[in-house]
User: What shape does this take?
Amino acid sequence: MKVLKSNWNFAAVVGLLSVAAADARPWRVEQLPNGSKFSCSNCHHSPYGGPRNAFGLAVEKEVTRGSRAPFWSIALAAKDSDGDGASNGEELGDKDGDGKPTDGAEVTNPGSSKSKPSKPVEPIVPELVVENPKFPFSLRFKTVEGQVYEVQSTLDFRSWTTLAKIKGTGSEKVFADRRKALFPRQYYRVKLKE
Ligand SMILES: [Ca+2]
Ligand SMILES: [Ca+2]
Assistant: This one.
């Protein structure tokens, strides 16, 4: 009798699962490039299904109710359904929409504007301007917020000494070399720290 009872419990759980899955149509997730990352949240506001988000509504236009036919297309990839500036294809790591995701591509949610690709920060090599050529020698350069710069000096272009680390703020920074001027000539450079 005990065995029979546990079988019943099992059947009840399976029944509940299939109801939830029917709502969110898991085969649609499988047809999206990298669809498994956000699963049902690609198309629905909730990870359990329910009302569709902007991308879900765009997908709904492409599919027939209950159909399992592939729907991912170049046209759907080119749209920016959630309006976050990144196309659906860019968000799902398949920019050209050919159904083959790009290896190592960043995957974000095409149905949520809060999830979008992080734009790579372009490293900007700063241009150095001499502020004071006499003692104390100083130079200035424009910085980018979030980047770290090292001011270095050398006598021979072989060994460089780090004189200062400067955190970028988005505005110009001034570096002054207040060391005693022991050498007739010094060379300076500013290195962008990785
Ligand atoms: Ca988008
Ligand atoms: Ca998005």
Observations:
- The pocket of calcium ion (ligand 1) is lined by residues 80, 82, 84, 86, 88, 91, 110 (CB under 6 Å).
